[in-house]
Each structure stands twice: as structure tokens, then as C-alpha cells.
Design goal:
Blueprint lengths: L9 H11 L8 H9 L3 E5 L6 E5 L12 H8 L3 E3 L4 H11 L5 H20 L4 E7 L5 E7 L3 E7 L6 H7 L4 E9 L6 E7 L8 E5 L2 E2 L3 H12 L7 E4 L2 E2 L1 H10 L4 E4 L1 E2 L7 H6 L3
Length: about 280
């Protein structure tokens, strides 16, 4: 593990809560609540995912997400981006986290959030200028992708994001990576990887919805780099990320681009099971 679970301490949560309320110097009520709520970190292995999950033991006290752009830039750098949390996005996040959401609704609203994240991820790809002729004979100055693109999903929960990518990019090639975790040591290892032959020349959208510790993503990025993919050519499309995972990944791969919809100490680790109906 690149970072110990004990690194996410009550002090860290105090800072996160304070920044979320726009106050970097004083202890607020939300900060005290977050510190009291975070009392225990438990590492477990997600069913069929090879992902070490984090569960936070608390007394049903609210823990705020980290939204301060200054803190995010300071702690995670310019390559870590969060989807703009407008009311629509906030509602989607709420429905997905609600334990009373039916599977049918869960999948519907998860697909909506995935589509938003994928579309914003496509904005991170390099473009070049081009000109086209319109049906009226006029010339229109536009844009086109600079080079070939490829999606890579981390099996199994990452496969939930594949259709969203196909809906945005017709006939896009998609590779797969399977990462499993040792039941005793919780060490993540890659057991399967399949990519297009020219993967090293492509821009990669790496799809993985839940990052609790970042270990699975680290292994996946290592495999891509072993196949010749530059770190700067990889964009991680993610739905939910913890500060622990964000710190771990950006510290190891600072040129990797990351886009997530929420940075929050508690990740909805039920996502894969509920999306695929295996909970």
C-alpha cells in the first residue's frame, strides 16, 4: 500500500471540513462534527473488484465533501479536477448515496452521472484546429481530436462506465484491466490486461468509479506505462474519490489527469454491487 490507512486522521478531516466551509484558519462546527465522526478506518476487499475499501465508523454524523478549490489545488495539484457541483449533480450524488434508492433508480441516475463525467473527461483530451465546408459552401473553422483515443475500464465496476463512453464516442476501442487483491496482505496485483495493439500512441480514458485507497488505480496505471503509454496521456474518469486515494495517486503519478464528481472521505463502496445487482 502506498499510504497507510492511519494517514487519514481526525486532524486531516478537520482540515477538509474547514476548507469545505471556506475557512482555513478557524475551527467550525462542521469541522468538529467531521473530526468526531471519523473514529475508525477499516480496510476490506470489495467483492470481485480487488479494491481495498475504507469504511468510516461514525455516529451518523454528516461528513462534508471537500469543495475548496484552493485546498484542492494546493494538496492535489492542477491535474486533479472536480466536476462542477451544480444542483443537478448534487441531486445525482444524493440519490446514489441514499441507501433507500432502488436498484432501478440507482442504475438510471448512476448512468446520468457517468455521462456527465465522461463528457467532461473528453474536454481534457487534446484537440487541433481544422476547417470544414458546410452544405452552403461556407468554410467553418472547428476542432478535431488531436490523435486516436481509447477507453480502458478496470474490471468490474469500471465496466459500468463503458456505455457512457460509447454513447459519446462512436466505435471507440475499449481495453480492460483486472486487478485483484490478496486476501491476506490486501496487496493489489494485475491478473489480466487486454489493449489495442497501438495503445502506446493513444490518449487513454481510464474508467473506475470508486477510489477508496487508490491502490487499484496505481496498478492499472503501471500496466499502461509498461505498454508504452505516457503518464500524461492518461485521464482517469472517476465518480467518487477519497482524499486518501487522491493523495496517493497524485503523489505517485503527478502527470496523470484525474476527473471526479466528488472528493469525500466516505466512498459509496456499494456502487459495483448495486449497479450490477449483486448486492
Amino acid at each position: 500500500m502506498c499510504a497507510s490507512l492511519e494517514n487519514l486522521t481526525n486532524t486531516d478531516n478537520e482540515n477538509a471540513a474547514s476548507d469545505a466551509n471556506g475557512n482555513d484558519t478557524t475551527t467550525t462546527a462542521a469541522t468538529t462534527t467531521a473530526a468526531a465522526a471519523t473514529t475508525l478506518l477499516i480496510a476490506s476487499t470489495e467483492m470481485g473488484e480487488g479494491t481495498e475499501n475504507i469504511a468510516l465508523a461514525h455516529d451518523n454524523l454528516p461528513i462534508p465533501a471537500i469543495t475548496s478549490q484552493e485546498q484542492i489545488l494546493r494538496e492535489f495539484g492542477p491535474n486533479f479536477k472536480i466536476l462542477q457541483c451544480n444542483p443537478q449533480v448534487h441531486e445525482l450524488l444524493t440519490i446514489i448515496r441514499d441507501k433507500n434508492t432502488t436498484r432501478s433508480d440507482f442504475k438510471f441516475y448512476a448512468d446520468r452521472l457517468i455521462r456527465l463525467v465522461i463528457e467532461e473527461s473528453l474536454n481534457q483530451l487534446p484537440y487541433s484546429n481544422c476547417s470544414v465546408e458546410t452544405p452552403t459552401g461556407a468554410i467553418y473553422d472547428g476542432l478535431k481530436y488531436q490523435s486516436g483515443n481509447c477507453g480502458v475500464s478496470i474490471i468490474r465496476s469500471g465496466e459500468a462506465m463503458e456505455q457512457g463512453l460509447r454513447d459519446c464516442c462512436r466505435s471507440i476501442r475499449i481495453g480492460k484491466i483486472l486487478v485483484e487483491s490478496d486476501s491476506d496482505t490486501h496487496t493489489a496485483r494485475v491478473v489480466y490486461a487486454r489493449f489495442p495493439d497501438d495503445i502506446a500512441r493513444r490518449q487513454i480514458l481510464l474508467m473506475y468509479p470508486i477510489m477508496s485507497t487508490g491502490n487499484t488505480v496505481l496498478q492499472a496505471v503501471n500496466v499502461l506505462k509498461e505498454h508504452g503509454v505516457p503518464e500524461s496521456s492518461i485521464i482517469l474518469s472517476n465518480l467518487f474519490c477519497t482524499p486518501l486515494a487522491a493523495s496517493c495517486v497524485v503523489r505517485t503519478f503527478p502527470r496523470l489527469k484525474i476527473l471526479t464528481s466528488e472528493l469525500h472521505p466516505v466512498a459509496p463502496n456499494h456502487f459495483g454491487q448495486k449497479y450490477f445487482g449483486t448486492d
